[in-house]
Amino acid sequence: MGSATHFFLGANSGLGFQNLFTKFCESENFRDLIILKGGPGCGKSTMMRKVGEAMEARGEAVEYLHCSGDPQSLDGVYIPRIATAVLDGTSPHILEPSYPVAVDRYVNLGQFYDIEQGKRARDEIIYRTKTYKEAYRGAYRVFRAARELEDQRSNLLHQGADLERLARRTDGIISREIRGRGSGKGDQYRFLGSLTYQGAIWRFDSVESLCPRVYHLLDSAGFAASMLSQIHAAANAKGYGVIVCPDPEHMDRIQHLLLPELGTAFITVREGMECDGEAYRRIHLDAMVVPDHLKRWKGKLKLMQKVIRTLRREGIELLQTAKEEHDRLEALYHPCVDFGGIDQLTEQEIQRITR
What we know:
This protein is of the alpha/beta class. Helix content is 44%, strand content 23%. The strands form four sheets. It has a six-stranded mixed β-sheet.
């Protein structure tokens, strides 16, 4: 059996839905990029999972790309050795082929709908579609309020930061860990997790499977991004392949950084982003705030964190509503789908991929 890792290409945030599909889908890097089209309940996630399992059974390393709306569903599956991926190319991450047939191509699962049966459920389909989308919009409004307050809290802590101490700590890590020369593979971009209807989901298991040594950056103040940016630059300068995991709330900031060629990773750990795995080293970045400043603002910081926690909880409840409505929508479509035909097509695609 091959190995499996798990990441996300989409994430829910205070800025709405964030996605890395464009960064991932650089067509020149693929031998075969399969873009699935088809509406709710037509079996896209099931098809991708079957492809991934078949590749694992053939001994391939497989990367499963999970859906931020439902982490049990997939947005994609990627087989690196044969440069092949199968992706959901429907909203909110619409994809189009750049080099049709030569590299990327459509697979239309919509052909397996019974059109007349679907039309009989027209009114309820429209209602459920509007309802689940409105729940997402509500969640994003609440997450935006949490994001703005968290930025204010971070700015307050930065006012009391010992930045020289942070720089010295970062330089020490770089000199100790970023040695030799890498393969020149370059950067890959993934989300390590997302806020979902189940709460915050983080796939630290993938970090541990790729990198035996994991630094835990204990950081509720937002200092990790600066440290990770400098480590990233140093790794690039030495030619190491890096998996960059951006912060969905600030896409220009790095939240986690994986260096599989060195077997080393750096992950941010905080409330709502806890990691139960064993740390190679723990770096207490909150200690970069001078004690007098922390003491002065302790009450306000605690209150702000409480409000942020409450807002995120409310947003997650709205994501739960969106999931319930989407499940009802899929239930309307399921009787319209020829799943036998989809199974047959899935087997044809597996055979095509493995030729």
